[in-house]
Each structure stands twice: as C-alpha cells, then as structure tokens.
Amino acid sequence: MVTIRIIEPASKLRSLELLETYFNIKHRRQSLYEILPTILKLKDKIEELTINFAVKEFNFDFAIVFYDVTTLYFETFKSDAFRKTGFSKDNKSQQPQIVVGLVVNKDGFPLAYEIFPGNTFEGHTLIPIINDLKKKHDIKNITVVADAAI
N or C: the chain end with fewer CB closer than 10 Å? Predict the structure, then answer.
C-alpha cells in the first residue's frame, strides 16, 4: 500500500485497484479494513524505520522541517469522542471531522503525523507533535516552518 501510494497517490480503495493493475497483487477490500487497526498499532515503529532510513541513506538531519494541518470530515452528522465539529477547511462546519498534523522534510518526505479531535485549534497541534518527534529521535536542533495560522 505504501509503495503504490508513493507511485500514484490515491485513496485506499483506488490503491487496491492500482496494486492489481501495476503488480498483479490482489487484495480484498474487507482484508484491508481488517488489517488497518493492526497497521495503526505499528505507527511509531514505521515512523522510526522511515526516519532511520532517511538519515542513513539521504543524510537527513532535521535541520529544517515543514508542518501543516488539515481537516478530514465524515459524511455524517453524528459526533463521537474523536470526530467532532470544529473549524472546517472544507466548509463542512456541521459535520464531524478530525484534525491531522503532518511534518515533512524539505523534499516533502513525510516524517511524522498525528491526529487530533475535530474541535482542536490547529495552533495547539504543533508543540505536541514536535516535542514527541524530538523525544523519539533524540533531536537537539530543529527548525520548523509553518504557516501563519499555527
């Protein structure tokens, strides 16, 4: 899934189709949905391996990273403990959403992400992600570039 989404960014379901088209690899949609919770548990390990690879192979050094936030809404009007109404970048202010913060390197290579409840002010997302990133990877110096909304 990761490889195909790098080759051709698309939804998870479209990625399944592309895997079959490009590599003749077939997966059932239900199999994808069943394995997603397991993959989520591997988030920290995947992040660690990815950054270690970037450091080793590309001399990545955290000298400069870029941070941005977006919202993802759900086609429902029912909120829960995580999906909450908040400021929507998609003009869907009455629908529950989540807030996603993403850290990338200067080439746009993803380094870390975090998901926040939908009513989280985006300015309150930067410090937790960067502090966690610094702690996990023993980063002493880092320059973070973000837009004015942060």
Answer: N
The domain limits of the chain are 1-41, 59-146
Rounded CA-CA distance 101/103 in Å is 7
Q: CA–CA separation, 66 vs 145, rounded Å?
A: 5
Hey, which bits of the chain come out as E strands?
A: 65-73, 97-104, 110-117, 144-146
Please tell me whether residue 6 adopts helix, strand or coil conformation.
helix
Question: How confident is the prediction along the chain (150 residues), in pLDDT tens digits per residue?
Answer: 777 877 888 888 899 999 999 999 998 999 888 988 898 899 889 888 888 888 888 888 888 999 999 988 887 778 888 888 887 777 777 888 889 999 998 888 888 999 999 899 988 999 999 999 999 888 888 999 998 877
